[in-house]
């Protein structure tokens, strides 16, 4: 009887569910075995993913600490730990990374169902282009270093030739790997792939740290060249200067030295860019992307809807290039003047407020736009935000140190007041630009394909409506040719000349039509965009060009914040050099990374 009592309600519930329409909100999915099984599997996968990320992160942290201890020991005690010892450690790490990258290319990525998903947000074209550009410059840097050490092989160790050779292989392999596989969401060998990626990230960070701490190399080369010039001018007849390592061919050595100085900043940028791309790959290991995360239309960069931004930005770039050349000419002279430093600071004092005001206007326009925030999980965008905020700390930190030194000494001095204004404006510009870029990156992209298509159709209709004369002319010419009577044999040449003339006339008319169509289409597209989108595109393009010139000037050696002498005398040479040596590379990376973020804002506007 008890079994019947238990079976009857179940039977009634079964009949009731068959007769009554099911309501999804009233169904308790937790009671189903399949749901519980899938939930437990997903929970175990998440736990395994967290454990793998934790283990690989701890591995990278230990590698970074070991390399940092070696580099710091070399700085503080270069007798016990030499630069050659650091090079040997980094060469071992490079070889390990090479073996893993080759295994990934030939083994892991070729397994069945290895790459089921690809992150469309990762590996933007400007990121991969930066990897190729900076990688090529880093290869040339190593070539110059090998050539210079080969000439001085009689006083150089074999490690100084072997280390850049391994570096060339590492750069080439890593650049190929990132170009083809930066979008991969690998689904096999999760832990091994995470560990390989983290060791590669740690190696790039150590290479960046070594490049930052050894940034004095090109300064030493320049000081040696200046001392050589002074010694040659002051050298008395019959006196000979002897050095321990003399270059047999000074012309070739100068070429290698100049090439090394010119290409040295690109190696630091290459390490930081590769580390950011590898971090996104590490976050995408085992990631499964739903169809909501895959965009239907790929956004392309088109120079449409901008007029004033490129114009003002080009003016800023030209003026900045002139100021930079003046500064470099004066800085390379034996007695640099303070006038060029004043011109340098004046250029920044004019440009930085303009960039800040423009960024504030762009942020206000973002607030006025009725766009929803994009809350989808996106490791690339999260990393972009973190890198922008972290890289800005370099310039902001240097500026605050400079402000304290200038206010505490003599802020009324003309040069000090310019430097103080420069530091304050630089802080404000970094903050406002970060707010504008980060706000633009988090805005949901409104699919403008239908709008552009509508604009194109209306533009074609406008063009067709405004140019009936040319079409009628072309039709009349064709009709005249079809209605001409057959020519006689003696009039063949005249007929051919007329045909050639008519063909040239038709080609000129077609060319004029194409030019007029293109111009009218651009004008119509510009007028079709809303004023908010036009303003955002103008602002983004202007800031892109400004950040490019602000990236070029410190990258190639314009460092007045170190060469004016005030902060150096306040903090001491070693302390201020450490501050500048840490902040300047981050500032250079900040401007380069801001260009990518601003281009993203321009495309999505």
From TrEMBL:
GO cellular component term, pick one: plasma membrane
TM ranges: 54-75, 87-106, 126-149, 161-179, 191-211, 261-282, 303-329, 341-365, 385-408, 420-438, 539-558, 570-590
Chain positions covered by the region annotation Disordered: 476-501
Composition skew (Basic and acidic residues), residue ranges: 487-501
Main location: membrane
Ranges of biased composition (kind: Polar residues): 476-485
GO molecular function: proton channel activity
Membrane topology classification: Multi-pass membrane protein
Family: Belongs to the otopetrin family.
Domain of life: Eukaryota
Stored InterPro entries: Otopetrin
UniProt cross-references to Pfam families, sorted A to Z: Otopetrin (PF03189)
Keywords: Cell membrane, Hydrogen ion transport, Ion channel, Ion transport, Membrane, Transmembrane, Transmembrane helix, Transport
Source organism phylogeny: Eukaryota, Metazoa, Chordata, Craniata, Vertebrata
Record's keyword annotation contains Transmembrane: yes
Subcellular localization(s) per the UniProt record: Cell membrane
Keyword Ligase belongs to the record: no
Descriptive protein name: OTOP3 protein
